[in-house]
Prior knowledge:
The protein is an alpha+beta fold. It has a single domain (3-258), classed as Sandwich (Jelly Rolls). It is 31% helix and 18% strand. It has seven helices and twelve strands. It has helices at 3-16, 25-43, 81-89, 118-126, 174-186, 200-213, 263-268; strands at 18-21, 51-52, 57-58, 101-105, 135-138, 143-146, 153-157, 168-172, 215-219, 226-229, 235-237, 251-256. Strands 1-10-7-12-4-3-2 form a seven-stranded antiparallel sheet. Strands 9-8-11 form a three-stranded antiparallel sheet. Helix 5 packs antiparallel against helix 6. The longest helix has 19 residues, at 25-43. The radius of gyration is 18 Å and the shape is globular.
Amino acid sequence: MSLDNLAQKKADFFTQGWCQFESDPSLLNWIESALPVAQSLVIDPDNAKWLRCGDTWFAGVNILPNANDGSVGSGSALGGDAVNFIAQALGLSEFDWDKAQVSICYPGYPQRMSIEKEAAFKFRRDRDAAHVDGLLPEGPNRRRFLREWHGFVLAIPLLDYDNDASPFVIWEGSHEVVRGAFESLFLNHSPEDWSSIDVTERYHNTRQKILDTCRRVEIVAKPGEAYLVHRLALHGVAPWKASQDSICKQRMICYFRPETGVIEQWLNAP
Length: 270
């Protein structure tokens, strides 16, 4: 990657909360090893538990059996422009890759689940299930707490798909809105106490502010390409709108969300 290209990617990432990388031979080589493994996982009866939304979404959280260097089986480690950018622009290189999520959407996504309240389904359908990773709902009242502090989200498409086949959605600039909201919430608390603080109201109010004020963007990428999302960015998945006549029958993406530091870096790192 040239210095000019690196500078532009940094500007995109830190201003918009995401950036995209062109086709990379290193990722194409990685996909050669990862794709057949991912496909075998999807058809394994033991993994049917990951089907959601009326069998229109295979969630596949942390299901890919990759090694700490990102390699799958005897394949190559994760590398290329996106990984180099993470090291150069984010200053993150000495960490273990988490087991990747294999997320697949199918025609008709989303359908309402029997356990899903009508309001929750409408939010998934009409607002792309917009969320910030790591702020997890717990208990019968779905109170949210900071339970995971990822360094970033790296998305690697495994198959080609149509633009309307449930693309990834991000609200540009939302990462700084989230940062400001949680800086004030955590201001008088030690980082070691952050995970015990109920953030539900702050989270919901901040999410609504973002939905009202930030630009919604759909991201589509082909195998060999990748996109990097800021850990604090509000994001989600759009409903499947591809034509029934489309040859596209699924949208399969690997998502890596490694924890790369201590909890305070979730809020304070660039």
